């Protein structure tokens, strides 16, 4: 589904990735874990074509087997949820219009957006799916952070994408909202659905995620099955502090050892 091969990428004048390689197959559920500044958000911006890698021989970034991607087709295959998108949203947009905007690849409501009855029906269904059915006409600015994040999840699902990509999905949420978001993500994880989340909190890694990639300063320092990668030693090295990791029913927790 996604293939980075010897990719180099910059954010403004800072080189974030160099000779970076990572393959993620169709239907895989992957968590990319690392401290702030590790390169997680840059990775997602490359996938979403908000950012482009340096063009050079022997380097490529392929999505669904293609180096050249039609952005409209990409939006139909991958749903994105990020804090940047949340912050960019027009504050006076009604909740139903936030979801509908996903059909048009827009941020906010615009005059050219004339949704069909079928699209409106699907948007209302998705509001119910993310437990926001009572807020159809509530302005975006009046919603809590957790409600905004659920609304963006509904927006990401309008095209019934093959994959969801989420940048720190529970960041900034209180305990109840965080657990609610993680429950919704678990509901998405069917056999054919792929999911990629970036986070620096291991308690955001839902049990359905099978593979974990540890990222530090633009380099992969570990990549493999969750039960092998999420070790006390590996995470202590990653975060430069002594940590103790435990697992129960597929959920992982850590604390200072």
Description:
This protein is an alpha/beta fold. It has one domain (2-256): Rossmann fold (3-Layer(aba) Sandwich). Helices cover 32% and strands 27% of the residues. The chain has helices spanning 40-47, 71-77, 83-88, 95-104, 117-129, 145-156, 175-188, 226-229, 232-239; strands at residues 2-11, 14-24, 29-33, 60-63, 78-81, 163-167, 194-199, 211-216, 219-225, 243-248, 251-256. Strands 5-6-7-3-8-9 form a six-stranded mixed sheet, sandwiched between helices. The chain has a three-stranded antiparallel sheet with strand order 2-1-4, covered by helices on one side. A two-stranded antiparallel sheet has the order 10-11. A hairpin with a 2-residue loop joins strand 1 and strand 2. The longest helix has 14 residues, at 175-188. It is globular, with a radius of gyration of 18 Å. The model has no long low-confidence stretch (mean pLDDT 92).
Features:
9 helices, 6-stranded mixed beta sheet, 257 residues, Rossmann fold, 3-stranded antiparallel beta sheet, globular, 32% helix
How are the SSEs placed, and which strands pair?
Elements: E1 2-11, E2 14-24, E3 29-33, H1 40-47, E4 60-63, H2 71-77, E5 78-81, H3 83-88, H4 95-104, H5 117-129, H6 145-156, E6 163-167, H7 175-188, E7 194-199, E8 211-216, E9 219-225, H8 226-229, H9 232-239, E10 243-248, E11 251-256
Parallel strand pairs: 3-7, 3-8, 5-6, 6-7
Antiparallel strand pairs: 1-2, 1-4, 8-9, 10-11
Helix pairs in contact: 4-5, 4-6, 6-7
Q: Provide the CATH architecture.
A: 3-Layer(aba) Sandwich
Strand order of the largest sheet: 5-6-7-3-8-9
Overall average residue pLDDT:
92
Broad CATH class: Alpha Beta
Number of domains: 1
Q: Termini separation (Å)?
A: 38 Å
Secondary structure tally, helices: 9
Main pleated sheet = 6 strands, mixed
Going by CATH, the homologous superfamily would be P-loop containing nucleotide triphosphate hydrolases
Structural class: alpha/beta
